[in-house]
């Protein structure tokens, strides 16, 4: 199926590794022109080079995705290079390290979680929309998590709140942007095999696999395929949707195995 995104510019935040890189690979394989943002500038440049070696047009735009001035500067460079953009994948984020009960959590830990996920999603969306309007085509794909509805696990209230906030933002922005031909959706992954969950102990991962109906973790390229579809011409009537990709798990709680 031709997804209709060949030659369209796709910006992926946090795209240097993990899920974001897999999304860049999937979009690039469909002919999209890839702009990789990441706070890790070396990794962002390496990732773009890997894609270019495969014949994909890719460049790096390092920036802290949650810093207003850095996002504005990165988007200025993207606009200068490409003129317009069509696809924005708000993927940048950080994991829960360490866990904190809400009643013990320093406010700075709370704030920095909201900043990395929610503020970055808002800032990049705000910057991208004028450049999408120019091209008359827009697909924003945000990154929530399966636990945004189920409450996740103890120790991660700040992460769960950030992902629920992204789900709410997605639905609200979808209503604003629909008339402009710009769709706004979010993915809600279960556990994906990336560095983000590297800190989990082996027993914890074994329980996670066992509790999952598919008995395994999600592979990043499975997320990439979903995002490529949501970015496609064919997905134009999917708007304001939070798409779960969790192997059928929906909730997670691993009891006292940690
Ligand atoms: N791995 C999972 O199980 C899982 C599940 C659900 C949702 N998610 C979400 O998917 C997204 C990607 O996760 P991942 O597993 O690929 O993580 P990862 O740690 O492998 O990659 C995250 C990338 O984001 C970058 N990043 C972090 N903060 C940034 C910032 N402020 N500005 C720019 N770049 C920044 C990192 O440098 C890194 O390259 C995150 O939003 C995460 O919450 C992951």
Would you mind describing this structure in some detail?
The protein has helices at 18-29, 41-53, 68-82, 107-135, 147-150, 157-177, 202-211, 220-230; strands spanning 9-12, 33-36, 58-60, 87-90, 138-143, 182-189, 242-245. By secondary structure, the chain is α/β, with parallel strands linked by helices. The protein has a 7-stranded parallel β-sheet with strand order 3-2-1-4-5-6-7, sandwiched between helices. α1 crosses α8 and α4 runs parallel beside α6 (157-177). The protein is globular and about 45 Å long. The protein starts with 8 loop residues before the first strand and ends in a 13-residue tail after the last strand. It binds nicotinamide-adenine-dinucleotide. Nicotinamide-adenine-dinucleotide (NAD) binds at residues 13-14, 16-20, 37-40, 43, 64-66, 91-94, 116, 120, 143, 145, 189, 191-192, 194-197. Residues 13-14, 16-20, 37-40, 43, 64-66, 91-94, 116, 120, 143, 145, 189, 191-192, 194-197 line the site of nicotinamide-adenine-dinucleotide.
Provide a brief overview of the structure:
Helix content is 45%, strand content 13%.
Topology (elements, then pairings):
Elements: E1 9-12, H1 18-29, E2 33-36, H2 41-53, E3 58-60, H3 68-82, E4 87-90, H4 107-135, E5 138-143, H5 147-150, H6 157-177, E6 182-189, H7 202-211, H8 220-230, E7 242-245
Parallel strand pairs: 1-2, 1-4, 2-3, 4-5, 5-6, 6-7
Helix pairs in contact: 1-8, 3-4, 4-6
The protein binds nicotinamide-adenine-dinucleotide.
Nicotinamide-adenine-dinucleotide is lined by residues 13-14, 16-20, 37-40, 43, 64-66, 91-94, 116, 120, 143, 145, 189, 191-192, 194-197.
